[in-house]
Design brief:
366 residues; alpha/beta; Rossmann fold; 2 domains; seven-stranded parallel beta sheet; four-stranded antiparallel beta sheet; 14 helices; 40% helix; disordered N terminus
Length: 366
């Protein structure tokens, strides 16, 4: 294969060069790439590199392509991370409006295309909580993971943080549900397990069963071999990370599952179906309890469990609320009752647009 004539042929640059090139790139935005090259080549003209690739030889001259390699390597190694500033004023307004504890709402200025920053902030908060718990108990922390794209983004960011700062971060992972579209298996909680550094994870508990069962059959399903093993450890969970769904969002997984299975939603809709949290439906008045002949998703926790969980000082639930990453639908309509009547979270991380619409909706409802 013909090599680009401008390429240096190097697979990577030495750490000294990566650090300096990144510093120039970030702190000197007025410099052109060519001006950076002049300075870097002058600074490193005598550099000798003692490693496998360069074998003690002089490093040689940098090219324009090397600058971009340095920036990419700085990102991949965690030397540079993008961390969005939160909207403190908007967060304080939500805290005051809904009578929440300080520092429990975090508003991220994310758009439809970079909603992963909402999950990134949640990962930062959870990493801190994990370290604090590890130091206190000297044991691995039980982390419960819900399904969906928001939790997938959360796990990616948390994994990166733990890879960079692995001390005092031992984990036990537990999947909260079994439901996930077969063609979207990457959104299943058990699929997230392999994102984490293997040496930091002590136990992994999956939930493997049919995703949808009749309410009357649910007690029997919970007692089946292997299924009951997951239910047996659910009370050990210390941190839960989950998102939520909106009944009017066509991309919501509970809505899709019911539609694809041909399940009649009449009883749900008659009960005021507004949204769901980990596939458990709720209305503006609280949890919806299906009838014995209705179908439900197999999950470890009920919404009542989440509410009790929040009331325990040793437990923590992080709720990630952001726009649907497919159609852009915001979920303030479904979030409002969780803020007012039936709180199922300890901390909320939310995007700016949803937060703004949530406050507007609250004020209109007075």
């Amino acid at each position: 294969m013909r090599r680009n004539r401008h390429s240096s042929g190097r697979n990577r640059c030495p750490p000294e060069v990566i650090l300096r090139a990144t510093e120039y790139f970030i702190k000197n935005p007025d410099l052109t790439i060519d001006q950076m090259l002049v300075r870097l080549n002058e600074e490193f003209k005598e550099l000798k590199v003692y490693d496998e690739e360069f074998k003690g030889q002089r490093f040689g001259r940098l090219t324009r392509q090397d600058i971009y390699k340095c920036i990419r390597e700085a990102k991949n190694t965690g030397l540079v991370t993008l961390t969005p500033q939160t909207d403190l004023d908007l967060a304080k307004e939500i805290v005051a409006e809904f009578n929440l504890a300080p520092d429990t709402v975090h508003v991220v200025p994310a758009t439809l295309r970079n909603g992963h920053f909402v999950a990134q902030l949640a990962a930062t908060r959870v990493a801190k909580f994990i370290r604090e718990r590890n130091k206190t108990t000297k044991k691995a922390v039980w982390l419960g993971l819900g399904a969906g794209s928001a939790t997938l983004d959360f796990c990616r960011h948390l994994s990166e943080k733990l890879n960079r700062e692995p001390a005092d971060c031992l984990l036990n992972l537990i999947a909260l549900s079994a439901a996930c579209p077969p063609k979207e298996a990457k959104f299943a909680p058990v699929a997230f397990f392999n994102l984490f550094p293997q040496d930091l994870v002590r136990e992994r508990i999956g939930l493997f069963t049919e995703p949808l069962v009749k309410v009357a059959d649910f007690p029997r399903v919970r007692e089946q071999p292997w299924v009951r093993d997951a239910f047996a450890v659910k009370d050990k969970t210390e941190i839960i990370v989950t998102s939520m769904g909106y009944a009017m969002d066509p991309e919501d997984k509970l809505v899709q599952l019911l539609n694809q299975c041909g399940i009649d939603r009449h009883s749900l809709d008659a009960a005021g179906f507004l949204g769901n949290c980990q596939y458990r439906p709720f209305s503006c008045d609280g949890p919806i309890h299906e009838q014995q002949n209705d179908y439900r998703v197999v999950t470890l926790f009920e919404l009542e469990d989440f509410k009790r969980f929040v009331e325990e000082k040793s437990k923590h639930i992080v709720l990630i609320v952001r726009r649907c990453d497919v159609c852009g639908t915001t979920k303030e309509q479904a979030l409002l009752p969780l803020m007012q009547k039936f709180r199922v979270f300890s901390e909320l991380t939310i995007d700016t647009l949803t937060a703004t619409r949530l406050l507007a909706l609250k004020k209109r409802s007075h």
